[in-house]
Amino acid sequence: xxQAILKALSTARYEYEIYDWNYGSExxxxxxxxxxFCEESLEEYINDALLQDKRIISITDFSTERGRNILKAKFxxxxxxxxxxxxxxxxx
Length: 92
Description:
Shape: globular
Number of strands: 3
Distance between the termini: 27 Å
Strand order of the largest sheet: 1-2-3
Strand content: 25-35%
Helix content: 25-40%
Order of helices and strands: HHEEE
Largest sheet: 3 strands, antiparallel
CATH class: Alpha Beta
C-alpha cells in the first residue's frame, strides 16, 4: 500500500495515456502558486488522488509545515489493511 500511495501521488494526472484520467495527482500544478493557495489545495489534491484506490478508506490527521520553497504535508492513510503514516514535500 505504501508503494501504491507514493506512486499515485508522484504520477502527474492527465500526462500519461497509459493511465486512466482518475489516476495520479495534480500536485505538480501547485508549482509557482502562492503559499496560501497551496496550503488550501494540497489536502484536496491528496484526497482526490488517493481515494481513487478502493483499498483506501480515508485520509486523516492532515497537517502542513511551511519551508522556504517547500510545503511538507503529513497525514494518515486509513486502508483496509490498517493505517499508514505518510508525508510528502511539495516544491512551490
